[in-house]
Amino acid sequence: MSSETETQDARRPAAADGRKTGSDAWYSPAKRDRFILKQLVTKDFKLKYRRSALGVAWSVLNPLLMMIVLAIVFTNVMRGADDTIPNFPLYLILGNTAFQLMSDSTSQGMSSIIVAASLLKKVKINRYVFPVQKVLFAVVNYAFSMIAVALVMVFYQWTPTVFLLYFPLFLLLLTIFCIGLSLFLSAASVFFRDVMHLWSVVLTAWTYVTPLFYSVNILPDWMQKAEVFNPMYLYVLFVRRILLWRMAPGFTLIAQCTVCALVSLAIGYFVFHKNEHKFILYI
Amino acid sequence: MPLTSDNVGEKGSGLMRPDIPSADAETIVDVDDVSMVFNIASEQFNSLKEYFIALARHELKFKEFRALDHISFQVKRGEAFGLVGTNGSGKSTMLKIIAGVLEASEGSCSVKGTIAPLIELGAGFDMELTAKENIYLNGSLLGYRREFIDEHFQDIIDFAELQEFMDMPLKNYSSGMVARIAFSIATITEPDILIVDETLSVGDFLFQEKCERRIKELVDSDNVTVLLVSHSIELVERMCDRVCWIEKGKERMLGPTDEVCEAYKNLGR
């Protein structure tokens, strides 16, 4: 044990004044956050599946079961409404999983600062890691749900085309959009806890106004036009174009999704950064 | 080596104050005329409704509460500095400002180097995770390198004396056992500043003595500055070489331990 301590001491860079410091033990502030994010995501992941027999398989089963139920219910309802949907189950699961990513990450991210209160009162940690970590955790779950999507595609022999290469761009833009929203919501909920109740209502309403389990064509004309301002419609359309319709998303759609992501991030960052030093007084 | 208990001859009960650092020692904590003002009026709102009602009634006026009023002190490298004061006098607020989690309303507080706070029960830990997982989680939150935790994992367990419970969820631990792990993680390396709160009072007396010895080692190395906040005046007398007494947010006295503690103890008489 003594030799270990000595080597440790030997590796310590001598400070300018000749004193040894424990600097080999610490990350520089910039690198610190990455390790924290990783540890927190790992923690959430372990906790989510601890003591469940099927464990991580639930991340695959969940969207699959949801899709089956929705497909049974809505296939008849939607019959004849839109001939341009070539594969209704795939249409459902792509929309649902993408929306789930947004609703999971924002509802978890929203309360992340309040949940971390006892920690934030003691240790100086960059506060943004908590909402961002919740979004990253939702992305990990989304990655597992893509296994379900792959299973559906295999089942219907729906071979992906070269447009699959757009998928990372889609995921990146949606992730940025969610991070922005989570930053905003987590800051807002620190000051006004009602935001948490309000947001669950918003999420429910948002689920219905987004064409997840119906075709956009059945909406009245004015609503179809208004969907352009629904970011989730744009993101869902993006992923359906590349995987379901197997076409290029198109420049306009990419531009719209990028703008949504950047505007969300800018607002989220601004609100969060402007208020984060006051968090501790309210949590 | 520093983590074994048998290589320290001294008992925890004796005086264990560090040598007074030389006058040219580096200033690690510089608290310069710090005041902390809370707005009590605006802190009562937890809902939008309450906020708007108050707004409509023009009740959003500023009602201030001075938790700290022009506090100034400096702590040099290698010192053990104590903060004493009765309940609600502002000690914790002062500590939060030094730890960097709270921003002073007026004045400035500058801190050089790394800070290792003893994270209290339930804060940096997740009760559902095992002790092993928690060590990594807590280590990351303190800013340790992953490789560093890997290397010193055994040392951390050894010091906590919880070898056989490493794969048990923390919720099955007693509060004293959790405190052992917390202390063990925070002191595995030499931070520039070690913040010791009331945490120490949780463990049994054997572990408390062990912790005190470890703190003494850190202080004796002349690299670590210890900030101690405690209601236990004996602990402060035993460990600190200088003490600041804060009372109702005001700096009542600042000086060598014996003088300040004597005055503080006379408060109730």
Greatest contact between two chains: A-B, 43 and 52 residues
Put simply, the count of helices of chain B is: 8
Taken from the alpha-carbon principal axes, the silhouette of chain B is: globular
Helices and strands of chain A, in order, run as HHHHHHHHHHHH
Kindly name the structural category of chain B: alpha/beta
Average pLDDT of chain A, to the nearest integer? Answer: 88
- DSSP helix fraction of chain A: over 70%
SS summary, helix count of chain A: 12
Number of strands of chain B: 9
The biggest beta sheet of chain A is recorded as: none
Principal-axes shape call of chain A: globular
The CATH topology assignment of chain B is Rossmann fold
Oligomeric status of the shown chains?
Answer: heterodimer
List keywords for this structure.
heterodimer; A: 283 residues; mainly alpha; 71% helix; 0% strand; B: 269 residues; alpha/beta; Rossmann fold; three-stranded antiparallel beta sheet; 8 helices; disordered N terminus
Describe the structure.
- The complex is a heterodimer of chains A (283) and B (269).
- Chain A has one domain (52-282).
- Chain A is 71% helix and 0% strand.
- Chain A has 12 helices and no strands.
- In chain A, α4 crosses α10.
- In chain B, 33% of the residues lie in helices and 23% in strands.
- The chains are: A mainly alpha (283), B alpha/beta (269).
Task: Describe the structure concisely.
Chain A has one domain (52-282).
List the helices and strands and how they pair.
The complex is a heterodimer of chains A (283) and B (269).
Chain A: H1 2-11, H2 29-49, H3 57-78, H4 88-115, H5 117-120, H6 129-155, H7 167-191, H8 194-209, H9 221-226, H10 231-243, H11 251-275, H12 279-282
Helix pairs in contact in A: 2-6, 3-4, 3-6, 4-6, 4-7, 4-8, 4-10, 6-7, 7-10, 7-11, 10-11
Chain B: E1 27-39, H1 48-56, E2 64-76, E3 80-84, H2 91-99, E4 106-111, E5 115-117, H3 131-142, H4 146-160, H5 175-186, E6 193-196, H6 205-220, E7 225-229, H7 233-239, E8 242-247, E9 250-256, H8 257-265
Parallel strand pairs in B: 3-7, 3-8, 5-6, 6-7
Antiparallel strand pairs in B: 1-2, 1-4, 8-9
